[in-house]
Amino acid sequence: MNSSEERVLTDGFHLVIDALKINDINTIYGVPGIPITDLGRIAQAEGMRVISFRHEQHAGNAASIAGYLTKKPGICLTVSAPGFLNGLTALANATTNCFPMILISGSSEREIVDLQQGDYEEMDQLAIAKPLCKAAFRVLHAQDIGIAVARAIRAAVSGRPGGVYLDLPAKLFAQVMDAAEGQKSLIKVVDPAPKQIPAKDAVLRALDVLKTAKRPLVILGKGAAYAQEDEIVRNFVEKTGIPYLPMSMAKGLLPDDHPLSAGAARSLVLKEADVVVMVGARLNWLLSHGKGKSWGPPGSKRFIQVDIEPREMDSNVEIVAPVVGDIGSCLLALTTAMSDTWPAVPDGWLASIKQRKDVNLERMSSKLLSNAVPMDYHCALGALRTIVKQRPDSILVNEGANTLDFARSIIDVFKPRKRLDVGTWGIMGIGMGAAIAAAIETGERVLAIEGDSAFGFSGMEVETICRYNLPICVVVFNNNGIYRGTDTNPTGGADVAPTVFVKDSRYDQMMTAFGGVGVYATTPDELSRAVNEAMDSGKPTLVNAIIDENAGTESGRIGNLNPQSVVPKK
Ligand code: ADP
Ligand code: MG
User: Fold this and answer.
1) How many folded domains does the chain comprise?
2) Cβ neighbour number for residue 290 with a 10 Å cutoff
3) Residues 395/442, Cβ–Cβ less than 8 Å
4) What is the rounded CA–CA span in Å between residue 365 and residue 387?
5) Residue 481 has what DSSP assignment?
6) What residues line ligand 1, using a CB cutoff of 6 Å?
7) Number of helices (H) and strands (E), helices first, in the chain?
C-alpha cells in the first residue's frame, strides 16, 4: 500500500456504535467511566442519543422500559464490575418481565481475570450475568462485534423477550481494523422477532373450549400490550363479547371505561368465571397462581392460554387449550376461525358483572371527591385521576406500596402502554428510570406517582430529569415512611423505627436544587393545580403531596406475603 491509498481504519468503539445504528438502535442509557467513557462520547458524536444517569440501575431500568415501549432492545451501558453489578439488577428485572434489553458492560482483561491476578475492577462478569438473562456473549475480536450485536438483538426480542448481556473487554475498543472490512462485518438483522403462527388444531381446540363457556373471562397481560397488536386484541374481545380483566400494565390496551372491562369487578370474575383466556399474562403470584380461594372452588375453571413461550403452559395449573404463538397471530387466528354463529356471552353473566362494577364504582366515587386535609390516598388520587383522564396520551409511572395499589385501581388508563409500574417482581426503584425512558422514547408528558419510600430508590435521577429538561412531573406521596409514618421505637431509644423517614421531608426542594419546579401540596386543589401546571408546561416538576401518615396499610394489598411474628411484640 503506498501512502496515497492509505487505508481508512476503524476500531472497536466505532464498530459497536455502527453495529447498533445499522439496526436502528439510536439511544444509549448508561453511566460513563472506565473503559466505556469514550464509547459514550463517540456514540454522541456519531449522532446517537446518549442519556447519562447517576446510577446504573436506573439506566438499566430505563433501557428495559425503552425495550417494552418500542419492541427494540433498550441499551444500557456500564463500566466494569461494580457498575456492571448495578446494571445487573435491571437486567434480571427485564428478563423477569419479558422486556428486551441489552446490558453492555466494559470488562477487565481476560488473562488477568481468569488467573485472578487482581486487575482493576476484576470480575468474571460473563459467568455472573448468565443465569440472570436470556443470553450472554463476550467479544474478543473487533471483527466479531457485528455478529455479537446481531445475536444480542435476536436473543433479546425473538420469542419471549428478555435481557441479554454483552461483555466487551477494554482491549476490544482500541482494536483497529480496515474500515471497509469492518463495515462488511456488520449485520442488519432481518426480521429480528419473527411472527410465530399458532397451529391450526390448537386454535380449533381453544375455540371448542371457549364455545361451551357460560361465564368466560379474558385476562390481558403486559405481553399483549408489548405486542403492539392493539386492533387485533380489541377485535378479539369485542367480537367474542367476553369481559376482560387487564393486568396492571395492560390497563389501557382497551380503555378502562370500556363496557366489557371487568376491572371493577375483579374478585367476582376471578371467582365465578368458568373459562379463562390468558392473553400475554402469566398465572404467577400476581394471580394467586391460578388457584386458591380467590379462584373459586377447585376444578371450577378451564384455562386457555395464548403465549409465545410454550414452556409457560401448565406452569401453575392445567392449561386445557394452549395456543402458542405471537399475540397478533394467535388472536387473529382465533377471531378468524370463529363461526358466524358464535354463541353470545350469556346475559346473566354480563349483568352480574355490571351490577358489581356499579356498586364498587359508586362506593369509590364519593371517597375520591373528599377534600380531606391531610390528604388520604383516595382524595389525592381522585385529583390525579381527573388529570390523567384529560390527558390520555401522557404516560403514567407508578410505584410504592399503598401508592401503587390505590393508584392502580383508582386511575383509569385509556390508551395502550401508558402505564408503567413495578411489574412482575413488584420491584421498588423503577420510577425515575421508567419515567426518563418514557419521556425520551415517546416525547409525551410523564406523570410519576411515587410512594416516598419508592421514590428514594431512584430520587437522585431528578438531576438527570433536569439535565435533559424532560417533561416529567413526579408526585411524591409523602406519608413520612414505609406503609405508614407512625411507627415508633418501642424501647424509647434515640433511633426512630425502621419504617419511618424524616417527618415532613421537603422532597420538592430536591427538584428546585437542580433548577426544576418544586411544589409543596397539602390539599387536593393544590395538588391538582401543581400537576396541571407541570403537565401544561412540560417543566421538570416535583410535587410533594402531603398524605396523612396514618393512611397506609402494612405492605399495601400484599400483606399476606409479609410474615408476621407470632411472639407478642414488645
Ligand atoms: P402480566 O404481569 O401483565 O400478567 P406477564 O409479564 O406475567 O404479564 O406475562 C407476559 C407474557 O406475555 C409472558 O408469558 C410472555 O411470554 C408473553 N409474551 C410477551 N410478548 C409476547 C408476544 N409478542 N406474543 C405472545 N406472548 C408474548
Ligand atoms: Mg410512604
Assistant:
1) 3
2) 22
3) yes
4) 16
5) B
6) 97-98, 160-161, 221-223, 226-227, 247, 249-250, 280-282, 284, 286, 307-309, 312, 326-327, 424
7) 22, 19
Question: What is the domain extent for residue 267?
Answer: 200-354
Residue 284 CA to ligand 2 center (angstroms) comes to: 26
pTM score: 0.97
**What is the maximum span of the chain, computed from C-alpha positions, in angstroms?**
88
253, 245 in Cβ contact below 8 A?
Answer: no
Distance CA 377, CA 407 (A): 8
Residues 64 and 122 occupy one common structural domain: yes
Q: List the residue whose alpha carbon is closest to atom 5 of ligand 1.
A: 281
Which residue has the least CA distance to atom 24 on ligand 1? 326
DSSP symbol at 500: B
In tens, the pLDDT along 430-486 reads 999 999 999 999 999 999 999 999 999 999 999 999 999 999 999 999 999 999 999
Q: Do 281 and 170 fall within a single domain?
A: no
Cell 401508592 locates to 403
Q: Are residues 390 and 314 part of one domain?
A: no
Per-residue DSSP letter, 253: S
> Is the separation of the CB atoms in 170 and 107 below 8 Å?
yes
Ligand nearest to the CA of 484: 2
Atom of ligand 1 nearest to the CA of 196: 24
List Cβ neighbours of 110 (8 Å cut-off, separation of 6 or more): 140, 169
Burial (0-12, 13-18, 19+ Cβ within 10 Å), 235: middle
